[in-house]
Write a structure and sequence with these properties.
Pfam families: DUF5691. It comes from Ideonella azotifigens. This is HEAT repeat domain-containing protein. The chain is mostly helical. It has 28 helices and two strands. Strand 1 and strand 2 form a beta hairpin. The longest helix is centred in the C-terminal third of the chain and has 24 residues.
């Protein structure tokens, strides 16, 4: 900064307000400044001086002295690299400016073709992997040996790289990245559930809370009664995330001791009364917490700003520990009937919120459909897309097609928002829904509607990543308007680039 200090007064306030001769610098740099700043115009001379100083500063910069031994050379790569050409050009743009879902598709396409990233793109790809957990599993197969070596040289990239895909199983578990360890645990769980459970149990004391909670979800595959002791012990884990993950898995074991106790408590609060010629269920909230509330995870403090009162909060805590199947069996009502009944009680919000939490932990299609058919917006302030995401893709698409066909005001934007919220990255919509979305979208792209529809305009790139490949040509042929505003032109240009990139990556998957 000492080199720049003499210029700062004039640069900060302007040469018109502080006109004075340029300062001088010693040596050849000073001579070069003096020779270049001869225009007679103070502002021009100041900029010329700044240019000379900037170039000379960069030319004279010296890196920090390296005192450590040089690392071993990178192992030889076995995978061929993506050659120069249209696909590589599309990849460069995708890494620099493309949506996250397009980056995932690019890495998946490279892996499908058995190719690795070009060496020059490795630093940028590793930087993206550092910021995105979702990107790492797709990035690993295309890093190649050089990419793994490079990741090991930078502390910020180490958790992205891991070990070679050819490493032994034990090395993948002990030395691999978190994504590699999780993938290995899933493979072992599928082959030997007990061994995977024992491996996880042995490692729990050494893992940070987030990794304990994440790896615990692997037990959902092949979950059985043998897993109950471990899950029950983790209800007392010091991490809230781990406790919630264990409780969520116990909900999938309705005969386990913990959900059985919760169901018994809930049964004591339900009463059946006779009303005219039929019986009617009633429910009341607890008047106090049971003595063993802490041991059974019922002592979660109520947030100060929560809309539930104290008794309703206790009821909510209890409902979220009871499997949904118990409600249908105990009351002889199906999901739709239970939702209608719950909305008619004095404790509607507590019941609905509790059922929603159980549904997220142990999804059941009947409850998803019942909620979506009659969304209880008063009691649930969630986005319905969160429940849609629990359904198989075909079931989700039936809801979206129905919404598009109804041609409601704002229906297209709502469907697009829900599609992007509920559709897993890298999974394309069906040709039928994609065609329906494009049919609804084209008039807006060809007319003036996009001028004021800022929300839809912003979602176009991500939507083009989710549409089926067969629907993209129709969007690529949208005629451009002479009176496009710069923002609309930019939005449409980005949309076209996404489509071109997807088509380029698709050419790899056809081989």
């Amino acid at each position: 900064m000492s080199v720049w200090t003499p210029l700062l007064p004039q640069a900060m306030v302007g040469t018109d307000r502080q006109a004075q001769a340029l300062p001088t610098w010693p040596g050849e740099v000073g001579a070069l400044v003096a020779a270049s700043a001869t225009s007679g115009q103070p502002a021009t001379d100041l900029l010329r001086a700044a240019t000379v100083l900037a170039v000379c500063s960069l030319a004279g910069a010296q890196g920090a002295t390296w005192t450590q031994p040089l690392p071993a050379s990178a192992p030889e790569d076995h995978l061929p690299t993506l050659p120069p050409g249209p696909v590589q050009s599309a990849l460069v743009w995708t890494l620099q400016e493309g949506p996250a879902s397009l980056q995932q598709q690019a890495f998946a396409a490279l892996a499908h073709a058995g190719l690795r990233l070009p060496t020059g793109l490795l630093p940028q790809a590793l930087a993206l992997g550092r910021r995105s957990l979702a990107l790492r599993p797709l990035l690993l197969p295309v890093l190649g040996e050089r990419g793994l070596w490079l990741a090991a040289q930078n502390e910020e990239w180490r958790h992205v790289g891991g070990v070679s895909a050819e490493a032994a199983d034990e090395a993948r578990w002990q030395e691999g990245s978190f994504e590699q360890r999780r993938a290995f645990l899933r493979q072992e769980r599928a082959a030997d559930p007990a061994a995977a459970r024992e491996r996880l149990q042995a490692a729990l004391t050494e893992l940070p809370a987030q990794e304990r909670a994440d790896l615990l979800t692997v037990l959902a595959d092949g979950l059985g009664a043998d897993d109950e002791p471990l899950l029950d012990s983790l209800r007392a884990d010091r991490s809230r995330e781990v406790r919630q993950a264990a409780l969520a898995l116990l909900l999938r074991l309705p005969n386990a001791a913990h959900p059985t106790r919760a169901a018994a408590r809930m049964a004591a609060l339900l009463k059946q009364e006779r009303a005219l010629l039929r019986k009617r269920w009633t429910v009341d909230a607890p008047t106090e917490l049971p003595a063993d509330a802490k041991a059974d995870n019922l002592d979660t403090p109520r947030p100060k700003n929560d809309t539930l009162g104290e008794r309703a909060w206790w009821l909510y805590q209890l409902v979220r520990q009871v499997p949904l199947a118990w409600w249908t069996t105990h009351t002889d009502m199906d999901a739709a009937e239970l939702l209608a009944w719950g909305l008619g009680t004095d404790w509607a919000e507590a019941l609905l919120r509790g059922w929603r939490d159980v549904l997220f932990a142990a999804p059941e299609a009947a409850w998803c459909e019942a909620l979506l058919d009659r969304w209880p917006a008063v009691s649930l302030r969630d986005d319905p897309a969160s429940v849609l995401a629990l359904l198989p893709l075909a079931a989700r698409e039936r809801h979206w097609l129905r919404r598009l066909q109804a041609n409601e005001l704002g229906g297209l934007l709502t469907v697009v928002q829900q599609v992007l919220a509920a559709n897993p990255p890298g999974q394309s919509l069906s040709p039928t829904l994609s065609a329906a979305l494009v049919t609804a979208l084209l008039p807006r792209l060809q007319g003036q509607a996009l001028r004021d529809d800022y929300a839809l305009r912003a979602l176009l790139p991500e939507l083009c990543c989710a549409l089926h490949q067969d629907a993209l040509p129709a969007l690529a042929q949208v005629p451009r308007q002479a009176d496009e505003t710069p923002s609309i032109a930019q939005a449409l240009q980005t949309m076209m680039q996404v489509i071109a990139a997807r088509q380029a990556f698709h050419s790899l998957t056809r081989t």
